[in-house]
Design goal:
The chain is α+β, with helices and mostly antiparallel strands and 410 residues long. The protein is built from twelve helices and 16 strands.
């Protein structure tokens, strides 16, 4: 096994890193009595190539759909629907048994062939989904699942997505180093965003400037949102997901979500916000409160803290008479939001998400995003800031160096 070429779509990791992942997966398979996993990689994650769970084990995934058969004993196999992609896949993937139908038929049927080679027709098959939706437990499309049951009527088929997803939550030092590099690039993107912004330009111009930073550093961008809104009488408090030809004007608030990184599972996230011209005084106060919560979190998060303990960091928001606009202030992060979800004020729409993690603890190696989003009640005035990092023995390591808690007025 091993890869012979490097590419921008998937970061490089050592053989030892992949061997450790294989070992951890097989330990969980033994715990659950699973003979083989069928891992489904479906669709792209934003503009990144590949699928999260499959690419984590293989260092590769085809951009539309891939399947991996991962046996408890023996070599794993990737099946592709497009045979002409096998040569490129072999250069990149850590897994080297890559197959496809010669007539470009469904790659799922080729995966079934491999399962039959492993003689698991009467065994236990675990299904692992793409890993795009936290805690949803999705595996196959219904038609694919029905076909699996038809082909393996005597096998026991179980959902393995939840525990497989959790294997990715604690990062190795190699993974953390990739995320640190992603943060460095994202810091450059934030700087470029500020330097590019001026009245008369469009939101799309700012997006293209950020794309340029990513391209120059071999980074990918799962998603980027940038919006310019009136800071005197804003029409809404939430950023639009897709930048448009909306023209930047005086007294605009620039609100963005920047996610740049490497491959499907290694992006950094920042929540920058700054002003073109003097903002309304309410925004100055919102910034001050958000900055206090942010700084307290960066300084105060510790390994072993439980979800309910994180709620105390939100007290300055309540004391100021503001409300939490949404989300938990502490969320798991590596390519999209995932566990844990911690830190909400009563009544926040994120309360239901955080309830499951009230007694969960922060662990060393967890990668997190801090997202402070504060709103003036009964108005559309809201302000956010945030960055990403990891839990260490010394507390929270903030990967981002650009000061998101600094008030920037252009």
């Amino acid at each position: 096994m091993g890869r012979s070429f490097l590419c921008d779509a998937f970061p490089y990791f050592s053989d030892e890193e992949y061997q450790n992942r294989f070992k951890r997966v097989r330990e969980k398979m033994a715990e659950h009595g699973i003979d083989a996993l069928l891992i489904h990689g479906s669709g792209n994650v934003g503009n990144s190539v590949g699928q999260v769970n499959l690419s984590w084990l293989a260092g590769y995934a085809w951009s539309t759909e891939s399947f991996m058969v991962f046996p408890y004993e023996g070599e794993p196999t990737i099946t592709l629907a497009v045979p002409i992609q096998i040569e490129n896949a072999l250069k990149i993937s850590y897994v080297q048994d890559i197959r496809s139908f010669s007539n470009s038929g469904p790659s799922l049927l080729k995966a079934f062939e491999r399962l039959k080679e492993l003689k698991v027709e009467k065994g236990r098959i675990g299904l692992v989904g793409p890993g795009n939706v936290s805690r949803a437990g999705y595996t196959l499309y219904k038609e694919q699942y029905d076909l699996l049951v038809q082909e393996f009527p005597n096998a026991e088929i179980v959902n393995a997505t939840t525990w497989f997803d959790d294997l990715r939550l604690i990062k190795s030092e190699e993974e953390l180093n990739v995320l640190r590099e992603a943060a460095r690039v994202n810091d450059l993107a934030y700087h470029e965003l500020v330097q590019t912004t001026r009245p008369g330009r469009e939101e799309r111009d700012l997006l293209r400037a950020v794309y340029g930073v990513a391209a120059r550093h071999g980074a990918t961008y799962p998603f980027i949102s940038i919006v310019a809104r009136d800071s005197i009488n804003p029409p809404s408090f939430n950023a639009g997901f897709y930048p448009t030809n909306n023209v930047i004007k005086e007294h605009n608030l620039i609100q963005a979500e920047l996610t740049l990184g490497y491959g499907t599972t290694y992006s950094n996230k920042m929540w920058p916000q700054f002003f073109v011209g003097e903002p309304h005084k309410d925004f100055i106060r919102l910034h001050e409160v958000a900055a206090k919560v942010y700084r307290d979190l960066v300084a105060g998060l510790k390994v072993g803290m439980k979800g309910r303990e994180i709620n105390k960091f939100l007290q300055p928001i309540a004391d100021a008479g503001f409300e939490q606009a949404g989300n938990a202030v502490v969320g798991g992060w590596s390519n999209q939001m995932h566990a844990p979800f911690m830190g909400v004020l009563p009544g926040s729409w994120g309360e239901s998400f955080a309830e499951a993690d009230l007694d969960k603890t922060l662990e060393k190696g967890m990668t997190l995003t801090l997202h402070i989003w504060v709103k003036v009640p009964n108005t559309q005035k809201a302000y956010w800031m945030g960055s990403s990092g990891a839990m260490t023995d010394k507390g929270f390591e903030n990967f981002n160096k650009f000061p998101v808690d600094e008030l920037i007025i252009l």
